[in-house]
Amino acid sequence: MNTLTLAGDYSSAFTFVQNDFIDYYMRDINESQIKIYLYLLRSKCANLQVSVSSIADFFNDSERDVIRALKYLDKQKLIALEYDNQKEPSGIRLLSAEESRRALGERNMNSTEIRKAPQRKKSYSAEELSGFKDRKDIKELIYVAETYLKRPLTERDLCSLLYFNEELGFDADLLEYLIEYCVAQKKKSLSLMEPVAQAWARNGITTAGAAKAWVNRAVPSEAAEVLSSFGINGRDPAEAEVAFIRKWLKDYGFSMEIIKEACSRTVLKIQKPSFEYADRILSDWHEKKVH
To answer: Among candidates 96, 101, 119, 116, which has minimal Cα distance to 27?
Structure first.
């Protein structure tokens, strides 16, 4: 594999990590991608030569996994990949915060704002709930919710809706799609919808269109990490496996740390990888609200 040419505006004295990477990216990319990105920064600052094979050797990963991670970092506009005539990676440009924002274009990454993690649900007063119900857009939403759920909303339900709206920043359109999506997934209470809403919020989803795109992603970027937790390497996930991964990430809102723990327990218990067995573990944790 060819040596990669690294370029970027970084000092060789020590390794810089840009604030934008911590504020906007680090929470949403997986451990392997973070390690490779930091390794690239370190290599550039020290003027070290790197190649796909040297990165793979350093982290004891396959070259295929390294290339997959590099392509994901390129897609997120943390780096810009260059290719030779054989369409093999030949160079990497580490993008500055300004270059990343310019490349992403539509993504709102105001450098004076740090994208916050979802706020914890708080208790709401009767006055707050009354004012919330009186809003025209919420009256329409309550009607839609009651239609989907086929029952009147309880005070607890209203607290969940207010939490989604005020703490997570979901507008009425996004709330309506959240309810539609969750009911289709047989989640027919607002409390069961909370982990899904929190997962969307963690991933910066603020519109119904963005939520639909998130739900319909072909293969989650975390799929390779899940397979690796099972000890499976060198292949892409099957369609049924992707469905399980989507369920754990999007419907249950689990972090990769929890999913990997379930995979490890599966292999320890039955001595082989099994998405079905891991799903039983994670479904049980979801019912017990383990997050």
So the answer is: 116
The CATH fold of domain 3-104: Arc Repressor Mutant, subunit A (1.10.10)
How far apart (Å, rounded) are the C-alpha atoms in residues 41 and 127?
52
pTM of the model: 0.42
Please give the torsion angle defined by the CA atoms of residues 76, 81, 85 and 88, in that order, rounded to the nearest 10 degrees: -80
Task: Please tell me the distance from the alpha carbon of residue 125 to that of residue 64, in angstroms, as a whole number.
Answer: 54
Q: What is the pLDDT of residue 22?
A: 80
Q: Check if 3-104 and 126-215 are the same fold.
A: yes
Mean pLDDT of successive 10-residue stretches along the chain, which has 291 residues: 62 72 73 87 84 88 82 85 84 82 53 44 81 84 90 91 86 90 84 85 81 68 84 77 86 88 93 93 87 68
User: From the DSSP assignment, how many helices (H) and strands (E) are in the chain?
Assistant: 15, 4
- What pLDDT does residue 1 have? 57
pLDDT of residue 275: 94
Q: Which CATH class is domain 126-215?
A: mainly alpha
How far apart are alpha carbons 155 and 126 in whole angstroms? Answer: 9
Residue 3 pairs with which residues in a beta bridge? 51
171 CB burial (10 A radius; 0-12, 13-18, 19+) = middle
Q: What is the Cα–Cα distance from 282 to 67, expressed in whole angstroms?
A: 30
In three-state secondary structure terms, 90 is strand
Please state, in angstroms and rounded to a whole number, the distance separating the CA atoms of residues 95 and 7: 9
* 180 Cβ contact partners less than 8 Å away, ≥ 6 residues apart: 148
